Amino acid sequence: MARVTPADLPVRDRLLHAASTLFAERGFAETSIREIVEAAGVTKGGLYHYFDSKDALLSAIHDRMLTMQIARMNTIADATDLSLTERLHAIFADVVETSIANLDDAMVFFQSMHLLAPEHQARVRAERRRYHERLRDLVAEGQQTGEFRDDIPAALVIHYHFGALHRLGTWYRPDGRLTAEQVGEHFAELLVRSLAPSNT
User: One Pfam family from the UniProt entry (predicted)?
Assistant: First the structure.
């Protein structure tokens, strides 16, 4: 049973909340428009005022997750008062915490990208690639300056740690022992410690 959509959200946000919850719990293909509008407490006409299809809802969920995390990442990456280690730590802690805070969106994002319309899928993949490349470039810069070990390709470091992030939805539980902040801190520590030069 899907969780109740907050009634005080604007209609468009209620629809996205309901769709994200249902897609995460049941899967995109198994969720009907009727179920989405019932969970959101709106009419089909209300849905079609904002979204012309179930595919458009899926695209909007991907867009809002990616847009939010890219903006936060860029703010931290541009913080010149922080060292590369501090920036990388803060970015990865943040992406974990925001993924947990928006866990349904994150699960939909990680599991349903292949279901997006081809042109939208290409755009989302390109944006996600730029996100990963920005982090890869921070790692590479640290390797060049000696702040990070340089015996592991920077791209491999990023792929490895994001691979772990993409599994969050399979094991994280809000009522578990660790808070989102603790999980983010542990993930970030694992990343920066894996890059520490061997003499530190």
Answer: TetR_C_24
